[in-house]
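User: I'm writing a short methods note and want a consistent example. For DNA-binding transcriptional regulator, IclR family, I'll paste the sequence; you return only the structure tokens, no commentary, since I'll be parsing the reply automatically.
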Amino acid sequence: MAEKTVQGAQVVGRVAQLLRIVGRSPEGGAALPAIVEASGLTRPTVYRLLNSLAAEGLLDHHAETGTWHLGPEIYVLGAVAANRYAIEDLARPSLQRLADETGESAFLSIRRGDETVCLLRVEGSFPVRSFVLHEGVRFPLGVASAGLAIMAFLPEAEVDRLLDDGGARAARFGPAHTAERIRANLEATRRNGYTVNPGLILEGSWGMGAAVFDRQGNPAWALSLTGIEQRFRPERQEFLGKLLLEEAHKITQQLGEHVSAR
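Assistant:
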């Protein structure tokens, strides 16, 4: 019985992993070789699980391109789950205000485990944009402005655990993501209240972020702005940071009021 329980948990973990991998490519879909590589599983295992998920409506397979996409059942489940979480409805006006007042693209990201996932995007009026961030994209905590903003306000023991990654962040995202460099950015975030990402993922693509806290005071979400370097000069950062903090504070307060009213 114990062995069956372990095997069952392993299957659930693999299914969740494959859904997350496919979900990272919401528009173009994910090809089988890319899913196999990202999952670390064997090709037959991945193919079998993908087809099982498709049979349940959790995934779709595009016959012409060979790519896999999130299926209609995921949409239904997401719509039902959305009724329990007010964050998107609360955040949308803040994102719109940020985009209107700055001209930059504004985003809401959520913490999921050791990652952040972008949930919402509102485009600003400035014609030149950065496309590093989009709905569904995931980054490890400590990478990108949302992940830095959230990580900065986690307990120190948790920060230590996250940064003890054997250099995985630096290997994937470049030398600006060593533990030492991330810690320096976290300290600056704590001083200012907001974080600045000076093109650390893609040269010339800058971002700034501020954490949104749940009712228990945990950093669970983040607002961020992204754009080209020229729009994030030092003389403008204070203005952008102030706006981010104001909107993040509004959402944090509204979340508390929403929970209290239920």
